Amino acid sequence: MTRLAMPKADEGVLARRGEIAEALRAIVGTEWVVDHPDGLRPFESDGLTAYRQTPLVVALPENTAEVQAILRYCSGSGIRVVPRGSGTSLSGGSLPLADAVLLVMSRFNRILEIDFENRAVTVQPGVTNLNITNAVADRGFYYAPDPSSQIACSIGGNVAENSGGVHCLKYGITTNNILGLEMVLVDGEVIRLGGKHLDAEGYDLLALMTGSEGLLGVVTEVTVRILQAPETARAVLLGFPSSEDGGQCVAEIIAAGIIPGGMEMMDRPAIHAAEDYVRAGYPRDVEALLIVELDGPKGEVDFLLDRVEQIGRANRASYVRVSQSETERQLFWAGRKAAFPAVGRISPDYYCMDGTIPRKALPAVLHRMRELSGQYGLLVANVFHAGDGNLHPLICYDANKPGELEAAEAFGADILRLCVEVGGVLTGEHGVGVEKRDLMPAMFSETDLMQQQRVKCAFDPDQLLNPGKVFPVLHRCAELGRMHVHRGQMPFPDLPRF
């Protein structure tokens, strides 16, 4: 069971478990409903495994009509619904509820259309991020956002969390690469936002839905933008005697007007863990390692590599190595992309944070994190998207040792508060979920949070979709000023309305 405060379970719904399961079987078929305790266990957490909760029942629809039917049934019966993709969320965004149907979208796994002429691909939300690139690579195209979990994470989950990746500094995060969505609202209505055209008229609801963490609707189809692979891509490894030197180098590269295709940084614990795991050729005698990739025409890449090397040496880089082949470039990235599982080999558990800060604050924040590491007595391995200031500190702990999880949580909360203090934000790409929910007041005022909840109420007035996530205090929609019509009568009917 999770130790977090979650919405109180509805005893009436719990008592109807069998009835609810039968109703869902009538919609998706007996094979695609899970309600046995042993079958439910694999779904009790997502990538944030510190928190667990057994769901009421799991339903795995195959098409939009089945999603519609499930949401209509649940909405009409007052049953909560938690949408889930591949379960790789690192913020507890798809943590189940004891009285909620867990709506698992993994059977939505088909690529529906590849349109090279319009540079667009339409897929179902269960298609993995990497498979989009694999489907178009033979024609020299790719999908730019590339989370380290791209081999497993689904595009629907990327939309829900507005995921990033190592190449998002230059090419943008998910919201910059999504063209259109099909979504099912809580009452079963299907809406389409955007399309293959460049811009849609009216309010930018597409951007609103991207990053909405399953609170506003269930994504059933996604159209993404694909890009032509650059003519040349080369990467350089820069090793530094301190993380502060590496952080300063990052700031100066951007200040020089250079926008790398990717710019990632690791500290000593992460470097050693990745090198032991992947054998990428990383230096072991440096405190910080910066991977900078330049892409574009060959002449431009060669020129910018020289500039980056000069900036690195001016910031005390003691190690410089430029990739000499595509295989070597991929090996550089293989170490970085395997950093999370690599750290898992050196610690029984780790807690992955996701704050984002201004680039100029990197040296000071890294210094303060080392102080906090000593204060809490827990190792922290830093792996982050240096170019856009998106930090991923991995706090190592042992859940079997009393008090260590609590210490890791407190350490992580201090890191996130620090991010806000220096002008940053609580999350860059993992979302708020349950992990950062109770820290939202550190960044937003009560008025800000209530305004965000009004948006939630516009789409989900009964608070049935993914409740208990994002908002530290969940207000009833009536408390937020939503118009209540009782038996056809509006309040104050004598007032003029526009």
TrEMBL record:
This is FAD-binding protein. Gene3D superfamilies: 3.30.465.10, 3.30.70.2740, Vanillyl-alcohol Oxidase, Chain A, domain 4. GO terms for molecular function: FAD binding; oxidoreductase activity. Signal peptide: none annotated. It holds the Pfam family FAD-oxidase_C. Its cofactor is FAD. Residues 51-229 form the FAD-binding PCMH-type domain. Keywords: FAD, Flavoprotein, Oxidoreductase.
